[in-house]
Design a protein that fits this description.
heterodimer, A: about 260 residues, alpha/beta, Rossmann fold, 2 domains, six-stranded mixed beta sheet, four-stranded antiparallel beta sheet, B: about 575 residues, mainly alpha, 2 strands, globular
Chain lengths: ~260, ~575
Amino acid sequence: MSTPVTSVLEASNVTKRFGGLVAVNDVSLSVAEGEVMGLIGPNGAGKTTFFNCLTGMETPTSGSVTYKGQPLRGRPDLILKAGVARTFQNIRLFPNMTAIENVIVGRHARTKAGVLSAVGRGPRYRREERESDEMAKELLAFVGLRHVRNELAKSLPYGDQRRLEIARALATEPGLLLLDEPTAGMNPNETAEAVKLVRKIQAKGLSVVLIEHDMRFVFSLCDRVAVLVQGEKLLEGSPQEVQSDERVIAAYLGKPAEGESA
Amino acid sequence: MMRDRSPVSLLAIAGAAVQAVACFLPWSQFAGFPGEMLNSGYPGGARMYVLFLAVAGLAVLVLDPPRRAAAARAAGAWSLAVSLLTALLIGYAGGGLVNVGTGAWVAVGGAVALTVGAYLLDLGQDRPLTVWHLPDVPWRQPAEIVLTLGVAGLALWGFVVGLGIPDSTIANGDDHVILRAFSLNAITAGSEFLSFLLGIIGLFVIASRVGIVASVSAVTQRQRAALVVGASVVAIAFPFTQGGSPYGLRIAASIGVFAAAAVGLNIVVGLAGLLDLGYIAFFGVGAYFAAIYSGTSTSPIHTTLPFFLVIVLGALVAAVFGVVLGAPTLRLRGDYLAIVTLGFGEIFRISVNNFDGSSGPSLTNGPNGVSNIPDLKLPGGFSFGDNHSLFGVELPFQANYFFLEILLVAFVMFAFLRLAESRIGRAWVAIREDELAAAATGINTTRLKLLAFALGATLAGMAGTVDAHVVKVAAPDSFTFIESTLLLAAVILGGMGTVPGALLGASLVYLLPEKLRFLQDLRLMFFGLTLILIMRLRPEGIIASKRRQREFHETDATALDRAGALDPPPGAHA
């Protein structure tokens, strides 16, 4: 890329050890503003652990992460407040709350009402509640779930749950959205919808990092792709570069055995 | 209307009709059986509840509501249970079945016909459950308000009748405890209350089968203002129904304290999902604070604080205890937190037992407790210890404390409802649902959990300050583990996360042991059995959480679904 880009997220030399196991080894990654970056790699490559290190679910053993120049450290809720939101590989909604309630909970970090104003219900409290409600409705419409807003989260079909989780993350007004396998378990139609949704999110000016196994999805959507193998970053580049790299093919399909021609 | 004219259906209808008529005939040939069964013309005693069940069964069969057969089966089974039990007990008390009146046998026969007919009806013919609507006409709103007020009135009626049934006990000589409790004498003495209980449960089952419970609760949800007014009127009216007797007022005041504490515990358990087994300690902190600063001679501190200050300070002190306990322990989850809180409850009880000046600081007067707490006096000279006469009705002084209770419960309910439906309440529910996801959504989980703990403790402390003045003593025995357990039982039984649930749960948990006195030493065993039964039949609690239904309007069909309306068959979504 020739145009100068400002980077949103800078992860430098992030390492995470669990006892003797090195789950993430010295990974550096830079995400530019407004770009969609793909993070691929075989199972167990450390992609989700890397996400956890970015969002405060795990503390990196060494290395640092900055978001828009601010160091990210500590509790998940503080990192979210700074502007980094995420979804989970195995969907984690609030199952017994309705769709719209799930999204309104996403407003928590951006609203203020405490105990006294909740009991007192002054004009400011009511304005805040109304705004949260309106924004939640807009976001549900944005992801295409407006019609099921009063359904319980657990009763929604799988694909809708994924989209609801994205709406909840968007309600926190993030600058960077981390999506952990957003199309896992989706049929081709739903995957096509997901592509459109990520494009729409990008059009809003957000940066997106997504972990994915669906290569067609990754290569049609991402501006850049990074490959993690066994906790280390193998390479990073445009979809074309990554697609044609032999090491990537080897990592996914295994090396040809001795004596066999590739 | 009735489409089903099959012989089976007609048999059931005839049975219900016969049973209803039989309730106006004498059921016993001698006087003195509890509830008086000798007379004819008026359905006294157990006959009243059999009559209700029979009429309900008749209405179900003739009016052909959804789930007709299922409801008719309930009517048959419950009315048979009550009438047969009563008939046998009358026979026992009269020294032989010969002395059972004809009415009882006719009623049992009718119940058998109703039951057999109902069980032969084809359940597959039942229409699925639906929510009943009033047509969309100008008088819909007023009609719904009247219905809501009616529900409140019905609740008062049930409470007054249940409370008014004498809880007589019978001396049984030297029999063994177990023999005494299981003795037919004991059960006979309690038969009127027993039939009341069975009757109410039966009516509730019938009403929920045909969808009345779900429909009415949908209406009361819409007319919340009317529900609040109705509940207040009922609460204020209650002392006037007692004819100057302090018995019911004393019980009602205790239920009030218990309910206020249960609502507070509901924040901790029902909303935030933190299991607290030492909750009574916070209540105790408030009670001891009020007792120590009440000006009684048994308190080592001879300072008297005005009561409104005591309420506020007592609540604050309890809140401090909540934070002190919560800050280091809330990192624990589930079972571990439960055990730590259990330990805290015990520490509190043992501490107040020892703070008597010899084995600890002189603060609580040890095992004797701080007693002889003087009656409250308001600045205007109004003393809570005086009897009053209002609207020509004699109100014993206990009514003053009862009204104080009403204020306390109203405040606690108000605070709970507003918190539950706020940013804070949603965050609590989110933590309960998935703590990790809540943190990833920007909720400071530690702080919010601590807040739940502190607020729960505050409300408990507040209830405690009032309780000390109602019972006039704060002693270690009142704050044992069993009290914490009973509060928890009240919350779970009534329905977690709802205010009416906590109120109903508190009433049941307090009232049942009180009214099961006829079982003497085994009353607590039967109380436990009742709790197990309720949990088996309705594990979500009697008044299940309708959180989802309230906040945003939605179609009634899904509302019914959410209301936990009993197992709606597939395709119930209209």
